[in-house]
UniProtKB/TrEMBL annotation:
Keywords: Cytochrome c-type biogenesis, Membrane, Transmembrane, Transmembrane helix. It is found in: Membrane. It is a multi-pass membrane protein. This is Cytochrome c biogenesis protein ResB.
Length: 382
């Protein structure tokens, strides 16, 4: 049973299943698939498969890494005759940077050259990286997130579930800017903000699209922006009179209809009033500081435009785990670039004859055989 759980066959089945579910979720726009129980179950099975596979080969890997000249067999039958001389073998070891150990048993001497221990570890480091990334991805599903709409210069309480998970109490937007490239096209949007806890400021930073702010388990993403209009609305009722921040392009109800506000340039707005049937009955342009009397006796005074930023706050340690896994995966890739693992055992008998025992795979094994003048390399020595 354990052999099947750690098998490549099961890994292929699980990877194919995950790929199929991911493709289905993408085609049919079902993002909830990635947090669904079936998907998490398959991910969990793949985690167990990869973990058991990694653990099962660790003893053999450790034995291979500790192997030295003391572990070489003494019998001549365990080696392959070579046409190379002792001097050429030593020169080969020196040229290709093998770490060399030597020993003597009676009149027979042994050499053991090894290189590429780090590349030998690379696949296992990559396994570990994938395991950490899986843990991080699952943890991300159990994190908390919320959205805030904050105008430049305003300070606002962070959403309750973020406040409960962190020590944060408030977020103040210091500036919100649209960034342009050299051709004058919109390049990005940047929000600069300050974070407050119960005892005062606890941090500050900025966030842009695809460049989130990250600190500890908190991530703040630039999700969008919008515009509101700061107005004073006067009616015959004290309950409904007062200051409002009306959003752009949304219907604001009146007793016998509704009105819509739209931006005109950088600061002016366009007031459009409609009756119950949706027929426009009035249209007025207003600058900051101007006002107008509405048809039902109410009054609207325009104070200023409010451009707000839309921020998404996420808290959880999944992002940190995923990043750590990515760093390990990059390290594993670098380790693979250092070459391939190769170990060569050499038996030198009193007559000067040289015999070789190889521990290498594929092209590396063939290359070693060629340089060390071994004719028969069909059998691999582990």
């Amino acid at each position: 049973m354990l052999k099947f759980i750690s098998s490549i066959r099961l890994a292929v089945i699980l990877i194919a299943t995950l790929a199929g579910m991911a493709v289905s979720a993408t085609i049919f726009d079902q993002a909830e698939v990635f947090s669904s129980t079936p998907f998490l179950v398959v991910v969990g099975l793949f985690f167990v498969n990869l973990l058991t596979c990694t653990l099962s080969i660790l003893p053999r890997l450790a034995k291979r890494l500790r192997r030295g000249v003391r572990d070489l067999p003494e019998g001549a039958g365990a080696y392959q005759a070579s046409e190379a001389s002792e001097e050429s073998v030593r020169a080969f070891f020196a040229k290709h940077r093998f770490a060399v150990q030597e020993s003597r048993q009676g009149e027979v001497r042994y050499l053991y050259g090894v290189r590429g221990r780090l590349p030998l570890l690379a696949p296992h480091v990559l396994h570990l990286a994938i395991l950490i990334i899986i843990v991080g991805a699952v943890l991300s599903n159990f994190g908390v997130k919320a959205t805030m709409q904050v105008a430049e210069g305003d300070i606002q309480a962070v959403p309750k579930k973020i406040a409960e998970a962190t020590d944060l109490k408030e977020l103040a937007v210091q500036s919100f800017q649209t960034e342009y490239d050299r051709q004058g096209h919109v390049d990005n949007w940047r929000t600069t903000f300050e974070l407050f806890g119960a005892d005062g400021p606890v941090g500050s930073g900025d966030t842009r699209v695809n460049h989130p702010y990250k600190k500890g388990g908190l991530s703040i993403y630039q999700m969008g922006y919008g515009r509101r209009f700061d107005v004073n609305f006067t009616t015959d009722s004290a309950e409904t009179s007062g200051g409002y921040a009306f959003p752009e392009d949304q219907k604001i109800p009146l007793a016998d209809g509704y009105f819509i506000l739209q931006a005109m340039g950088k600061e002016a707005l366009l007031y459009m009033e409609y009756d119950k049937d949706g027929q426009m009955i009035r249209q007025e342009a207003l600058k900051p500081g101007a006002g107008l009397n509405l048809t039902n006796g109410n009054r609207l005074d325009y104070i200023r435009p409010l451009e707000y930023t839309v921020l998404e706050l996420k808290y959880g340690h999944g992002v940190q785990a995923v990043f750590a896994g990515f760093v390990l995966a990059a390290l594993a890739s670098f380790m693979l670039l250092l070459g391939r693992y190769a170990a060569v055992g050499v038996r030198l008998d009193p007559t000067g004859a040289v015999a070789v025992r190889l521990d290498a795979k594929g092209r590396e094994r063939k290359r070693l055989a060629q340089h060390l003048s071994i004719k028969d390399v069909t059998k691999r020595n582990d």
